[in-house]
Amino acid sequence: MIIILKPGCSSAEEQEIINEVETLGYKPHIVRGVEHVVIGAVGDERSHHTLETLNNFPQVQEVMRVQKRHKLVNRQCHPEGTLVQVGEHRIGSAPIHVMAGPCSVEGEKQLMETAIAVKEAGATILRGGAFKPRTSPYEFQGLGEDGLKLLARAREETGMPVITELLSENHASMVAEYADILQIGTRNAQNFQLLIAAAKTGRPVLLKRGLSMKFEEWLLAGEYVLANGNANLMFCERGIRTFETYTRNTLDLAAIPVMKSETHLPVVIDPSQGCGRAQLVKSACRGSIAMGADALLIEVHPNPAEAWSDGAQQLSIADFRELMQELKPIAAAVGRSIATL
Ligand code: PEP
Ligand code: MN
Asked: Residue of 25, 74, 138, 257 with fewest CB within 10 Å of its CB?
């Protein structure tokens, strides 16, 4: 930590802070500038008292942190980047994985038809919500365990691993039994008990960015997963809430380079929740790949107009097929490829 004293501080005031730094268990290093005295406090904050309390002294201008609060997810821990293993796939390596499927699992026919079609088009992982976090309690809440069973059946049929949302701590072991990746949704991105429960299942976790989450908060939410013994974490940008209402959310593509520099873990983009309109999804996917996304999470439905949730943003199978072809040259242009099964 660095403590900056106010200009014109007396030597007694300066000494008072130096003494306090030592009392709290840190070694002070004093730098005297033209106007300011700066005290560097050396010590590990995890095993000492916090220095933030120094802000209460009137002669202190600012107490600044040198080390980042996110430690295990920090790229410094693993400069070359971590690959998350999902079945045979390694997310975070040069091949870009496309996870695709319906917003909600609605029934066997809808899921199987979508699963087979997205696989044929080139997706490597099947998505589908069985527990749905709906804004209104009167909207379709998902098929629950029956939906999980259908996802497991679709995996058997297609060989594609499946990703589905974990909505409640109580369901952690049940969802982990059926799913290959646990998705933590935007509404639960800072539900720390849920993050811990997800981590403890040992399944890879995909953590969506909260609706109004700053990068540091998102990184620290991810820190809960690693701190609880699970290093298989992916961060997924899915749009944040801004003043703009033309799009459902504001998809923050700058999150890709920011998160790629802050963390060693893969960064995924969900353009479907991000844009909320099917006609914007293709451009968002192209941009995401150009900006360095490691995977995409895309909603696809055999008949979006009749979908039980998120109809406006789901791609038809034909549009998804076309999109997959369009992504190949963009991946190649940035030295990557689209992963295949
Ligand atoms: C979803 O993937 O269908 C979903 C509900 O996601 P989010 O948590 O990003 O809204
Ligand atoms: Mn959805």
From this structure: 138
CA distance 98 to 296: 5
| 148-183: pLDDT as tens digits | 999 999 999 999 999 999 999 999 999 999 999 999
- DSSP label at residue 223: H
CA-nearest of 302, 292, 304, 300 to 334 is: 292
Q: Which two tokens stand for residue 43?
A: 């010590």
How far apart, in whole angstroms, are the C-alpha atoms of residue 52 and residue 60?
Answer: 11
Instruction: Give residue-wise pLDDT tens across range 94-105.
Output: 999 999 999 999
Nearest-atom number in ligand 1 for the CA of 208 is: 9
Q: Report the largest interatomic distance among the alpha carbons of the chain, rounded to a whole angstrom.
A: 78
Q: Report the predicted TM-score, pTM, of the whole model to 2 decimal places.
A: 0.90
Q: How many residues does the chain have?
A: 341
| DSSP structural state of residue 6 | P
Q: Extract the tokens encoding 143.
A: 């098929």
Angle at 95 between CA 258 and CA 319, to 5 degrees: 90
d(CA 25, CA 45): 9
Is the distance from CB of 39 to CB of 26 less than 8 angstroms? Answer: no
Query: Taking the CB of residue 55, how many other CB atoms lie within 10 A of it?
Result: 11
Which of 237, 273, 298 to probe ligand 1 with, by most ligand atoms within 8 A of CB? 273
With beta carbons less than 8 A apart as the criterion, state whether 314 and 323 touch: no
Residue 42 forms beta bridges with which residues?
27
Instruction: Tell whether the torsion through CA atoms of 72, 238, 207 and 212 is positive or negative.
Output: positive
58 phi-psi bin (left φ>0, alpha ψ -120 to 50, beta other): alpha
Nearest alpha carbon, ligand 1 atom 6? 185
Report CA Rg, the chain: 23
DSSP state of 184: E
User: Which domains are assigned to the chain?
Assistant: 2-64 (3.30.70.1140), 75-338 (3.20.20.70)
Amino acid, res. 46: R
* C-beta of residue 117 within 8 angstroms of C-beta of residue 292: no
